[in-house]
Amino acid sequence: MILNSHSAQSILANSSYSTELKAIAEKVFKGERITFDEGVTLYKKAELGFLGTLANFVREKKNGNYVYFNHNFHVEPTNVCVYSCAFCSYSRLIKHREQGWELSVDQIMDIIKGYDGQAVTEVHITGGVVPKQDLAFYTELFRRIKAHRPDLHIKALTPVEFHYIFKKAKVSYEEGLKIMQDAGLNSLPGGGAEIFDKEIRDKIAGGKCTSEEWLSIHKIWHKMGNQSNATMLYGHIETFEHRIDHMERLRQLQDRTQGFNAFIPLKFRNKENEMSNVPEVSVVEDLRNYALARIYLDNFPHIKAYWAMIGRNTAQLSLNFGADDLDGTIDDTTKIYSMAGSEEQNPKLSTQQLVDMIKGVGRTPVQRDTLYNIVKEYNEQN
Length: 382
Ligand code: V47
Ligand code: SF4
Description:
By secondary structure, this protein is α/β, with parallel strands linked by helices. It contains 15 helices and twelve strands. Helix 4 crosses helix 12 and helix 7 packs across helix 10. The site of ligand V47 has 20 residues, from strand 7 and strand 8.
């Protein structure tokens, strides 16, 4: 679906929209940044069709008709964790570690070698936090991956893991990140951000790295010339103001560093965790949230709809509400979402299925590498 300035004009001419909403729309169509209060107003007062038109306008200006995906796989070194985030369905406390898994470097290398000969470009490594998976563990792992397969991009670990590992090793963030980079780390995934508001963060993810620490680690990583992603866990006990506050802090950091590639809204899933009493938000709210992210984060190149978490149907719909990336052709190595109640119990999509999903909404599929270099553009024939 290609929207053009005609759709923009139809919003401005539509008498059923308030002058307040039309004034915000006009700013978006002129390429002007919207304010915190305007973001909150959109969350509170704008309906899905209105937000979709604005988000499409922005996404098509930034990414044309392209929808990106990559060929990647996930490794979760452990699901045992020293923390106990209330929303987490997947971790097991150290005292119940026999119920979980803790892989050795050799075991992880066996997983990596299992992809030999397959056209994957990225391994995404993240999981729980345990004392023995420390700086020495990860530097050995990264070195061995690079020795085995130098061109495999290592996207690994979040500030939650870094903060714990570096504190234990008594190194600064700068020193620790340099050691990880020298060992082979290429980029950082967006996890662990949850929601930056302190009161909500303390309630759902108390004890792990603070918002300031999360942002500081990404800032240092960017200043070293590297790239990363950012996430937001939404649809639990946060308010619309908290969501805009989260995106505002990311927008400010991005103004300074330009190091973020993609923003990934992560829908709170409520199965088998301490927050199972909190209902999940609707698909309409998911789509409104993708659209708001696209409109608010005017300096983020990409908005990713992580299909393994949101389900392939909503992911496909999101392509008309601001999202331009579906992540990858991952297989059942990721457990975070299947254990939290995602529609995708064994997340696996072939390249052809992803391509068909994207073509099904009239967009152009593009296989990318982690840093959004184009590997292959698909047309009507392929
Ligand atoms: O930080 C955990 C989330 C994240 C639940 O950078 C949950 O390309 C919803 O960050 N409901 C890890 N979310 C995954 C992640 C990610 C995923 C895909 C791509 C990228 C990328 C990053 O998963 C955690 C947490 O926010 N999470 N439990 C749950 N019950
Ligand atoms: Fe541990 Fe991450 Fe789960 Fe929190 S979300 S309990 S840090 S694995």
